[in-house]
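## retry 2 of 3
previous attempt timed out at serialization; input unchanged, resubmitting
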Amino acid sequence: MEVSLPYFGRAFTSTYGTSDNSYRFTSKDYAVTKTQSKKGNWVYKIKPNDVKNVSDINIEIFKNGRASTSIRSNDRQPISYDGYISKNEETKEKEKL
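## retry succeeded, writing output
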């Protein structure tokens, strides 16, 4: 899992020597739970085990394609993001004869 999200909020520890406060990390060891709410929305709870400052990531996907993501951290205030889920563009490879 690769995460690259901006962060605007209060940090409880300083990041000395860098001005980048965003969430940028790659996790290979994480647990995912998937549930469906009473309204039919899908909720994914992700707990990365190999990232020390992120405690959990929650993603809720609504029926109309909207999505809400929230991140809780050990050293920052929680932050949430809103957007839409869309399909990636597919590139067709040319057939070689």
